[in-house]
Design brief:
9 strands, TIM Barrel, alpha/beta, two-stranded antiparallel sheet, seven-stranded parallel beta sheet, 305 residues
Length: 305
């Protein structure tokens, strides 16, 4: 490696080794056509490492076919959803009116011990099955919409389902926790990042104890403030990377359906533009190496810790 390629500089901020152990993951594939289209364009341009998909919204089958075509470009994961739209089957405890609770209500229920583990586990099983039936393959990793998979009372159901579905290829499980000093140094979205870390405390250790790989280091929590430049946040997210660092993002095109589903609309296009514009970003992130019909990612081999 020549001296002039020894590091890749993101903007004028963090210096990273090309091909560093940084997984850049776009959440929310299959939320809308515009979101999926933006993520597809980034993946094909080698500007992402991974994407995770919501399987509970209408039209997932069409999105699933598109996911299968991206497997030689990015890792593909399941984005467990317990806060948006309807569950895949009746959940009288969590969704008595047929609609999943919003995030605030779900957090309150989880902290008060009012979620039924068996009911949550059954819905997660359904979401796994729909992912695998639609795409034809196992997820490379799992995470949660609004990090619901790490909440008290829900995390046990997640790990139980994973234990029942064990195979040689164990999915990486997102741990949305990072160290206090790293969060404060990055500054971007620090208050949200600390709140998420507090709610998720201990989850990563439990997942690893159960035999599942996790990321080591996490960033990407944004305040979604349209008055601030996402380019600056993105640069900060690459500072103080962990040994198997995960950066989440939420790019996409704002289509008419999106505003009815999510509060983050125009900001997604800003993220999309920044991810395309960031100099040499493709050299600073990990990339999957397999054919579209290849096996799931073996994380211990692909990104050893």
């Amino acid at each position: 490696m020549s001296a002039d390629t020894a590091t890749t500089r993101i903007g004028d901020g963090a210096a990273l080794q090309p091909g560093a152990n940084v997984v850049l993951c776009a959440d929310d594939f299959a939320m809308t056509d515009g979101v999926s289209r933006g993520i597809e364009e980034l993946a094909l341009a080698r500007r992402l490492s991974a994407t995770s998909a919501i399987v509970t919204l209408p039209g997932f089958e069409q999105h699933a076919r598109r996911l299968a075509e991206l497997r030689s470009f990015v890792a593909i994961g399941l984005h467990i959803n317990l806060t948006l739209g309807a569950p895949l089957a009746p959940m009288p405890g969590l969704a008595p009116d047929g609609e999943l609770p919003d995030h605030t209500d779900l957090v309150r229920m989880a902290l008060m011990g009012r979620v039924v583990k068996a009911e949550i586990a059954a819905e997660i099983e359904r979401q796994f099955a729909r992912f695998e039936e639609g795409t034809g393959f196992m997820p490379d990793f799992i995470d949660g919409h609004q990090h619901v998979h790490t909440l008290p009372g829900i995390r046990a159901a997640v790990l139980d389902v994973l234990a029942r579905r064990q195979s040689r290829f164990r999915p990486l499980v997102r741990d949305p926790v990072d160290g206090l000093s790293a969060i404060l140094q990055r500054r971007a979205g620090a208050h949200k990042a600390l709140a998420i870390a507090l709610l998720s405390r201990g989850f990563g250790a439990r997942a690893r104890a159960a035999g599942f790989p996790t990321n080591h280091g996490f960033s990407g929590v944004s305040a979604f403030d349209m008055d601030s430049r996402y380019e600056g946040e993105l640069e900060a997210f690459f500072e103080r990377p962990g040994r198997r660092h995960l950066v989440m993002c939420h790019p996409g095109y704002a289509d008419p359906v999106l505003a009815d589903l999510d509060s983050v609309v125009a900001r997604r296009h800003q993220e999309l533009d920044a991810l395309f514009a960031m100099p040499r970003l493709d050299e600073a992130i990990w990339h999957v190496r397999r054919r579209a019909d290849g096996p799931p990612v073996d994380w211990q081999e692909a990104l050893p810790v």
